[in-house]
What we know:
Blueprint: H1 5-9, E1 15-19, H2 23-29, H3 34-55, E2 59-66, H4 74-98, E3 101-105, H5 113-126, E4 133-140, H6 142-158, H7 169-173, E5 186-189, E6 208-211, H8 221-232
Parallel strand pairs: 1-2, 1-5, 2-4, 3-4, 5-6
Amino acid sequence: MQESKIQRDLKIPKHVAIILDGNGRWAKSKGMPRNYGHVQGAKTVEVICEEAYKMGIQYLTVYAFSTENWNRPKEEVDALMKLLRNYLKTCLKTAEKNRMCVRILGDKSGLDEDIRTRIDELEEATKNNDGLHFQIALNYGGRNEIVRAVKKILQQVQNGAFKEKDIDEKTISDVLDTRELPEPDLLIRTCNEQRISNFLLWQLAYTELYFTPVAWPDFTKEELVKAIEAYTMRDRRYGLIKGD
């Protein structure tokens, strides 16, 4: 891929995470049902996947459905699950076309069996693709992920895989949903919300945060460039003093 002007002028993050916020509010502002916003938001995901890879981003992780989203009205949750089933089919076709490697983060045991089957098929079919590494967080919560990780580590200790005194940060990272993935360089949240909402709590320790008032269905390549322009201006010190 030839270096574009964007790549020359900007510091392109290796891994971008996005909290897809504002689908429902966007739809309401247009006098449409909330699900209309979710449908349009799914289309935006496809566009941004393609644009992100063209810009040189290697990993893109999106927060699609949280462990807390089950508390929404049943009709909205049912509509989201229907949309998810359709999207998983579409994503497989898109991944084949663009050679995306797709991975699902979250507690899959909380999803219906047919959805889990489609997830397994999608991950298996795309695991060797060499394009964009695309992660979708479904039934995902950062605290839930850490609890599941602790249980895995306790089981490994009980099985004699290692001793309690040997547990370190790498031990934890190696049992998270994001194992083998680099930590995000940039987190984008849309629709003017300025919190991380239980997303990638462990992984965002030194991630740069960017908030935009633009609702997710209206998020474009141009908005992605704005986020990366802001990222380019950041001085990432990882706890060090400037100049160290």
